[in-house]
Amino acid sequence: MASINRYPWISHFLGSPTGYVVHLQKGGVRHQGVGQAFWYRPANSVLSEVPVDDQELPTLFHAITRDHQDVSVQANVTYRFIDPVSVSSRLDFGLQPAGGSQAAGKEQVATIIGQLCQSHAIDQIATTTLAEALERGVSQLRHVLTEALRADTRLLSTGIEILGVQVLAVRPESDVERALQTPVREQLQAEADRAVYERRAVAVERERTISENEMASQIELATRRENLVAQEGANARRQAEEKAAAGLIAAQASAERKGINASAEANQIRLVGEAAAAREAATMEVYSGMEQATLLALALRDAAASLPSIGNLTITPDLLSGALAGLFREPAGGTVHAAAARVAAGTAGSVGK
């Protein structure tokens, strides 16, 4: 920005690299250009400073579509002054004294460009519907406004060059915009819900797969446990059968041993009995040929062996005489009587002892 140093009756001007100064003195151009520095007398001089750098002008206006919907258009226009002398002669870019009002040149340019943009945009949007304006309005308006502003005679004659037009947004009213956003929002919400449901379905499917795997594992374990129990039962049954067979064999062997022992014992008893019977038969056969006195003597001998012990025996004359009389009464049986006497003597001797 240019700086002015004021002194009594004279001032000094120092320009800036982006400001084109035009110094008029008594109606004629005395100094002009960028970065000027000169002395001048405020009493008969007029200074105008026109910016030569690129200027940005944001603009916002409303328009009505063919279907009677209000839309707002937000645009940005880039321009520059290519003829500062013409601009300074047609627009107010004068440098005011300290404390004076600011120059209204930029406000005038903003008004001119804003009105031109609004006029051409309204004409364009009036031929489109709201849907078309929202769909292709930005590109169409950018093309229309660029061509219209660059070809405008007023801007060209003033020395203003349009570098570019950017249409930032074409938006309907807030209620209409919310109404238009509702289907898309519902669709997005439906897609989000579907994604959630699909994710849940995948999670449920995975859980089902995990449960099936766990169940299959449990079934496999149960089957193996069943096979193990069956094998253990078969082993136990086989062991019991083997034990029973071994016991049966042992019982059979014991029974056979007992049978053999019983048979041997029975044979022995039979042989002993037969021997005893043979002995008795032989004895009876011997006894059958003996006389009665001999048999009596033998009987007395056998009976004497079983009689109790007698310490003293008193034989009276009557007993002795009776016995002797009996002996001498049977002469045929002398031998018998002699044997009986011997037996009696032996018995007496035994008794005496």
Explain this structure.
This protein is α+β, with helices and mostly antiparallel strands. It contains 8 helices and 9 strands. The chain is 61% helix and 20% strand. The strands form 3 sheets. The chain has a 3-stranded antiparallel beta sheet with strand order 1-2-5, with no helix packed on it. Strands 4-3-6 form a 3-stranded antiparallel beta sheet, with helices on one face. Strand 7 and strand 8 form a beta hairpin.
Entry summary:
With 353 residues, the chain is of the alpha+beta class. It is built from eight helices and nine strands.
Summarize the SSE layout with pairings:
Blueprint: E1 3-7, E2 10-14, E3 19-25, E4 28-34, E5 37-40, E6 45-51, E7 55-64, E8 70-81, H1 84-90, H2 105-125, H3 130-150, H4 153-158, E9 160-172, H5 174-288, H6 292-306, H7 317-329, H8 334-352
Antiparallel strand pairs: 1-2, 2-5, 3-4, 3-6, 7-8, 8-9
Primary descriptors:
353 residues, alpha+beta, three-stranded antiparallel β-sheet, disordered C terminus
Largest sheet: 3 strands, antiparallel
Strand content: 15-25%
Query: How many alpha or pi helices?
Result: 8
Q: Note the gap between the termini.
A: 184 Å
Shape: rod-shaped
The percentage helix is 55-70%
Q: How do the helices and strands follow one another from N- to C-terminus?
A: EEEEEEEEHHHHEHHHH
Mean pLDDT: 81
Strand order of the largest sheet: 1-2-5
